[in-house]
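### Sample
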Amino acid sequence: LSGKVQHGSGVVVKKTQLLDRGQWASKLEFLLAVAGTLVGLGNLWRFPYLCYKNGGGAFLVPYVLFLLACGIPMFLLETAMGQFTSQGCITCWRHFCPLFEGIGYATQVVIAYAAVSYIVIQAWAFFYLFSSFSAEVPWASCRNTWNTESCVEFDKTNMSTNWTANATTPATEFWERRVLGISRGIEEVGSLRWELALCLLLAWILCYFCVWKGVRSTGKVVYFTATFPYVMLVVLLARGLTLPGAMDGLAFYLYPDPTRLVDPQVWMDAGAQVLFSFGICQGSLTALGSYNQYNNDCYKDTFVLCLVNGGSSFVAGFAIFSVLGFMSYEQGLPISEVAASGPGLAFIAYPRAVAMMPVPQLWAICFFIMVILLGADTQFVSLECLMTSVTDMFPTVFRRAYRRELLLLCLCSVCFFLGLLLVTEGGLYFLQLFDHYVCSGNNLLLLSVCQSIAIGWIYGADRLYDNIEDMIGYRPWPLMKYCWLYITPAVCMGTFIFSVVRYKPLKFNKTYVYPTWAYALGWFLGLFCVLLVPLWIIFKFLCRLCLRADSGEKGTQWGSNCVVTSVV
């Protein structure tokens, strides 16, 4: 790492070399890392619900079409950019189109928001996991200090007499009163939930030690974190299929309703799910691809990983809806009244179903370990993406002994303290606001359009094809090029316009209306990411004007900065 250089004066100067950037030790590490970040909580709690809501098996038609038109082409584009340049998602733009480097900064803002907010879900899961080690799972009864008089334990013999319009379930009260201590609105931030804060600290400590050596440590951790959730999923699927009412749940999940295909909302949901679940315009694919060997076949990897992601979402639906079918059977309620999406599925509906099973502690432990590991993989990659961007921008500063570890410690500490807002009594209101407007909002659609235009039209789709051919030895399917040029930007822009036309303000639990300042905050945080793109263009334009004024050069064309600097 270091050496000594003797100058003519006889003075010995210690010369420190930069640490190696690092590469994946094997192709399998790359595949597991990408699969780990793609197959996340959205596959578990969002896709099955969307499939059920939007026509069952018929929903697969728009989903597959969007997958072919947007998901796979953009996946290849981002992975190839990282692999070709061996740079993160900011500095890679300096090789392709410096004028659009703002896209890289925008993706890092999005992933920073996600790193702060989504780890809170792991904190909740840790809380539930620790609570599962008890003689009786605490969300199964109303005999606890946090329960109210409205709490009713379900029993087929008392369903008609005790259940009223104001009644609540033990699982709901455990979630809202014991775990969250939720306030009446975002205006009431309330006090810090110290137990959740400790769970959040535990989650950050685990993330730090799994990422602190870069791909050298992350590549080893993913062997467990990316595969064990599949073991848990198979176990839960096997258990779910043996429960009474499971087949009814699967029928609700898959029964095709072709008439739903004429509803534009179904197509918008399919397009949004593809973009968000494949990590498009979040920088993670570029960062992970940058650690590949130069001649790695990223084209084949794209199809393999997209198939794994889509297949995992589909199979997760069987595990979830078989249990919801059992829940519907036990309570005598229609599936529409027990089906849920998001945190409501993972922390109310599923625990409630688990409480009805024999040995509920075992199935609760299996489920929440799976939730923790699904979230951990995504968190590892988010941190690695941020670290890669910073170290690639300032290699002489951070690629030295122990400086990466210190930078990571500072990053984790800052994110932890920012995340404390989300484990207050009003934290869930902020979390849903960030998720809706920033982490999975319209900003990703607009960034996809910008990225397609920058690479497809300005840098040139054929030039990127040449770069990919130089890496893998052959040219990809021609349809990819036309997707970058026409289909992807058209589809993303159309989806964005439709979502704006059909815009409805976010409501918490479909009832609570946020104050005006909260909506303004959400829109500001979301649009700020996109505004970085034109702001960077203006900044580069002004820098070139100042440079021309200082140097007196009249013939320099600032637009030439958008021509790639060859790195081959």
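Confidence is low (pLDDT under 50) at residues 156-161, 555-568. This sample (Transporter) is used throughout the tutorial notebook.
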